[in-house]
Amino acid sequence: MINLNSKEKIIKSKKRVGRGIGSGKGKTSGRGVKGQKSRSGVAIKSFEGGQMPLYRRLPKRGFNSISKQNIAIMNLEKIQFFINEKTINSSEIINMELLKKLKLINKNSQKLKILGTGEIKDKVNIEADLASKSAIEKLEKISGSIQLKK
């Protein structure tokens, strides 16, 4: 390994421009002649010599719909998990207000959709805006109930 202190002068002193013909960087200080770029304090950001700039060549992406609704989704396995954890009581009606109060779904959600992924063992009463066919079938199989709001 090389000890940095043992090397001869590592740091070069910076080139002093505009200090006469003999320095090799005199008169125009390596900036060429005249024009905007030879002046100080000028930066032409993202100018590509009249060519269409990159940020204008690339397409605009994405779209935010103003009519989009925030739909909170809840799987049956997730409901069963919360019942097992004793977060939700299986005897009470599981609805949007309860889930928001327990911070299990986002407070900005406007609708609740129940999906049928996983198994549910406890008999539950659910009140939701939307539900998948598989979720309804699984709830009917264990004699649970689901009310869909219109």
Low-confidence stretches: none
CATH architecture of one domain: Ribosomal Protein L15, Chain: K, domain 2
CATH class of one domain: Alpha Beta
Large-scale geometry: elongated
Q: What is the topology, as strand order, of the major beta sheet? A: 1-3-5
Portion in helices? 10-25%
Average pLDDT taken over every residue: 89
Number of strands: 6
C-alpha termini separation: 76 Å
In short:
With 150 residues, the chain is an alpha/beta fold.
Explained architecture:
The structure is a single chain. The protein is α/β, with parallel strands linked by helices. It has a domain at 71-148: Ribosomal Protein L15, Chain: K, domain 2. Helix content is 19%, strand content 15%. It is built from four helices and six strands; from the N terminus they run αβαβαβββαβ. It has helices at residues 54-57, 76-84, 96-101, 133-141; strands at 71-75, 93-94, 111-115, 125-128, 130-131, 145-148. The strands form two sheets. A three-stranded parallel beta sheet has the order 1-3-5. A three-stranded parallel beta sheet has the order 2-4-6. The longest helix is centred in the middle third of the chain and has 9 residues, at 76-84. The relative contact order is 0.11. The model has no long low-confidence stretch (mean pLDDT 89).
